[in-house]
Amino acid sequence: MSSNHTTPDAGGPPIEPGAMAITVQPVYASEHSDPRAWQYVFAYHVTIENVGAETAQLFWRHWRIHDLVAGDHEVEGEGVVGESPVLGPGDSHRYHSFCVLRGPTGHMEGFYHFRRRDGSEFRAPIPRFHFHAPPEAVGTLFS
User: Fold this and answer.
1) pLDDT tens track for 30-57
2) Both ends of the chain: CA-CA distance in Å?
3) 139 Cβ partners below 8 Å, 6+ apart?
4) What separation in angstroms does the CA of 123 have from each of 76, 120, 126, 141?
5) What H or E segment, with its residue span, contains residue 76?
6) How do the residues of the chain divide into helix, strand and coil, expressed in percent and rounded to 5?
7) What is the SS3 assignment for 31?
C-alpha cells in the first residue's frame, strides 16, 4: 500500500478546499482486531462529493497516519481502492477501506489529488478523523 513514488504533495497542486466535500466515518473492527497482539483494525467509509463547477478525476491519494504506539507514517498511491473515479458537478463516490494500528487510538488526514479535463490539477483536503478502540478492547491488554 505504501509507495516510494514522489508526488507533488510537497509544494504540488494548489489546495482547493471548496471543490470537493469529503466526509469520513471510522469504525472499530473488533472482529479483525487482536489487542493482545497490539493490532487494532479500523474500517473507514469515505464519501467524496464534487461540490465545484467542473468535472475532475481523482488520480492520487496521500495519507498522514498517526498511531499512538507506532508513531507517524505516510501512505500514498494511485487512486482509491483500485479506482480513479471521475466526478462531475454534484456527483459523489463512496468507498471503504481500513487501517491497522498498533495502538488503540490514532488519526488520519491527507489529500486527494484531482485532474480537470483541461489538465489542471488540485488537491482536496481530507479532514482529520480519529480512531478510538472501545474501552473493553483496551482493557484486554491488562487482563
Assistant:
1) 999 999 999 999 999 999 999 999 999 9
2) 34
3) none
4) 13, 11, 9, 40
5) strand 71-78
6) 10, 55, 35
7) helix
